[in-house]
Design goal:
The structure is a single chain. The protein is of the alpha/beta class and about 280 residues long. The protein is built from ten helices and nine strands. It has two domains: about 150 residues, P-loop containing nucleotide triphosphate hydrolases (Rossmann fold), CATH 3.40.50; about 120 residues, no CATH class. Strands 2-3-1-4-5 form a five-stranded parallel beta sheet, sandwiched between helices. Strands 7-8-6-9 form a four-stranded parallel beta sheet, covered by helices on one side. Helix 2 links the parallel strand 2 and strand 3. GO terms for molecular function: ATP binding; GTP binding. This is Nucleotide-binding protein. It comes from Anaerostipes butyraticus. Keywords: ATP-binding, GTP-binding, Nucleotide-binding.
Length: about 280
């Protein structure tokens, strides 16, 4: 039996994750009072109940009860029940955006600002983040991508935690993406924009890729960047970071940055991490 505690930041996708677990056969209970956790765990030990896999949604909605959670987890561990903690996370900026879009109140900010509630919740949930078996950062995930992560962990049986990398190409003339962690400027490379035959194409087209990559500087830049990321990523993981957004920018975000972002993502996929590539300004 897999006994999963689904927790994390409000607005990060816990309800969606529970529904996905329910769809693959888990017995799911959302917002279980922390005080009842040990009693529920005892029920699962009863052979007549025939519960195979369990997922419990426990989060800041438990109020003061969340302070008892660490003790309750130790109690069910003492019963001989092995449990996993799935922590759904997202950046403060994304959480605030989601709350504004849904016009819902944050559980800890009914009489104040949502930003204050998010900050307070992050502090109170810090101990669970440290204990988490799996952490999924949904800041950049679509629903189908979240489902892929849930399936990877709970259907495919893969046990290794996966660091999430997003490589985003963009044009400096349209501004730097707000959520990038690392920004790399590839405007030092020759620009295919000035070739009228190449101008209508993008970095997804082979003629543009051939033009950009024929210069020695492009290959050397990618080699040095990959070496740096090989060093950085394990250290990010060691410090508790679970996702990385890499911005690759050129003037318009259509030719050089797209080519380099695609080439970088291809190399990063050789690492044991989840990698996706986005081209923010390719159609502008």
């Amino acid at each position: 039996m897999r006994f999963v505690i689904v927790t994390g930041m409000s607005g990060a996708g816990k309800s969606s994750a529970l529904k996905m677990l329910e769809d693959i056969g888990y017995f799911c209970v959302d917002n279980l009072p922390v005080e009842l956790l040990d009693k529920f765990a005892q029920i699962t030990l009863d052979k007549t109940v025939k519960i195979q896999n369990v997922a419990l949604g426990i989060d800041i909605r438990s109020g003061e009860g969340i302070k008892e959670l660490e003790q309750k987890l130790q109690e069910i561990k003492d019963m001989g029940i092995s449990f996993e903690i799935l922590f759904l996370n997202a950046s403060n900026r994304i959480l605030l955006k989601r709350y504004k879009e849904t016009r819902r109140n944050h559980p800890l900010s009914r009489d104040g600002r949502v930003e204050d509630g998010i900050a307070k919740e992050r502090e109170e949930m810090k101990f669970l983040l440290k204990k988490a078996t799996y952490v999924i950062d949904t800041s950049q995930l679509l629903i189908r991508e979240l489902k892929e992560e849930i399936d990877r962990i709970y259907v495919d049986g893969e046990v290794n935690e996966r660091f999430q990398i997003a490589v985003v190409s963009f044009g400096f003339k349209f501004g730097i993406p707000a959520d990038v962690d690392l920004v790399f400027d590839v405007r030092f490379l020759p620009n295919p924009y000035y070739d009228l035959k190449l101008r209508p194409l993008t970095g997804n087209d082979k003629p543009i890729q051939d033009f950009v990559m024929k210069y020695e500087e492009a290959g050397e830049f990618l080699d040095k960047l990959y070496d740096m990321l090989e060093f950085l990523i394990p250290n990010y993981i060691k410090e508790g970071k679970y996702n990385l957004v890499i911005g690759v920018g050129c003037t318009g975000g259509k030719h050089r940055s797209v080519t380099i972002a695609n080439a970088l993502a291809k190399e990063l996929k050789k690492m044991p991490y989840s990698v996706k590539v986005e081209h923010r300004d390719i159609t502008r």
